[in-house]
Amino acid sequence: MRRWALRRRWGFSLLHEALQVASTLIVPLGTQVVLRLDLPGAPPSQPILRGTVAEIVRAPADGSHSYGLRCADGVELKAFRQDFSILKQVKTGPIGDVARVSLEHELHRYIIYRCVVGSQAYGLNREGSDIDRRGIYLPPADLEWSLYGVPEQLENRETEECYWELKKFIVLALKANPNILECLWSPIVENTSEVADAVVARREIFVSKLVYQTYNGYVMSQFKKLEQDLRTKDELNWKHAMHLIRLLLQGIGVMTERQVGVRVVGHRDALLAIRDGGQSWAEVNGWRLALHREFEEAFQRTTLPDAPDYAEANRLLIWARRQSVEVHHEG
Questions:
Q1: Where are the beta strands (DSSP E) in the chain?
Q2: CA distances from 2 to 9, 88, 106, 154, 160 (A)
Q3: pLDDT at residue 147 in the model
Q4: What letter would DSSP give residue 39?
């Protein structure tokens, strides 16, 4: 059985580790806290009862020493980190606590769309290349509507898998997120459903001129970081450089073809040469600048709308939610 990162992250063992880490972090002065147990005051007086609200007036140098607390009536006491909770967290309680959801429900059962992305989908894979899977999950309405809510994504880093909750997936698609758009156009779909098929069938509503701004801006900022690494560290992430070039090629295709071309087999040799360090930085940067110019020209000529179709995306989401209610109600 797959061990999902969400469950590992919020499972009892991880919660125990998180508490251990939290105990080593210093809570700042002025924070209001709630006592977890009865404690003696200073100077000695009647015990200060569990549930009392106090303020941190002295913080320790490290997690192994006590805090100085002052109650509303001015009585002071000493307490270790495990002796109190932060008031803000106490008031929130379990609301929005995905730990409860992840422990009580096998959320990966609600994956409605699974596809392969990355090198396998791009046509850049070699022997031993990882298989990266992405997709959508749609939890039952009672989980979505509950006080606790559901996580925006399920992730398993060991198996290179990530699945976004449907609304999050659609929101990211509307923002022209390349990872999400590639899911919608992946040539390798392993599992789908009625709702997922409907989303894929309407995928053109997510494609607009916003792709130009999103892709171009990201590539420009990342190339600046690569140049900085080259200057300051004399090192370069050639794999990242390759994918930035690939993203520009993809963006140009979106402007001209009105769809997201995931496979780049026509540029396979040139892209892999970058990844392997077979081209100089000057050559790579020169190609990048030429692609930026081509991207700009394609943007000027494209017939894509200025923005994605938010209204249609909203209708699609509401329909999917209703479908989910009917399916789980019948089940």
A1: 32-35, 53-58, 67-71, 76-79, 84-86, 111-117, 132-137, 153-156, 161-165, 188-191
A2: 14, 35, 11, 12, 11
A3: 77
A4: B
> Phi then psi for 54, rounded to 5 degrees?
-140, 170
pLDDT surpassing 70 at residue 227? yes
Sheet with 111-117: list strands edge to edge: 153-156, 161-165, 132-137, 111-117, 188-191
How does pLDDT run across 185-224, given as a tens digit for each residue? 999 999 999 999 999 999 999 999 999 999 999 999 999 9
Gap between the Cα atoms of 308 and 141, Å rounded: 27
CA angle 292, 293, 299 (to 5 degrees): 85
Q: Catalogue the E-assigned strands of 27-128.
A: 32-35, 53-58, 67-71, 76-79, 84-86, 111-117
Q: How far apart are CA 236 and CA 226, in angstroms?
A: 6
Neighbours of 133 (CB within 10 A): 23
Helix (H) or strand (E) holding 328: helix 310-330
The helix/strand/coil state of 236 is coil
The helix/strand/coil state of 170 is: helix
Cβ pair 302, 270 in contact under 8 A: no
CB count within 10 Å of CB 62 equals: 8
* Cα–Cα distance measured from residue 203 to residue 5, given in angstroms and rounded to the nearest whole number: 29
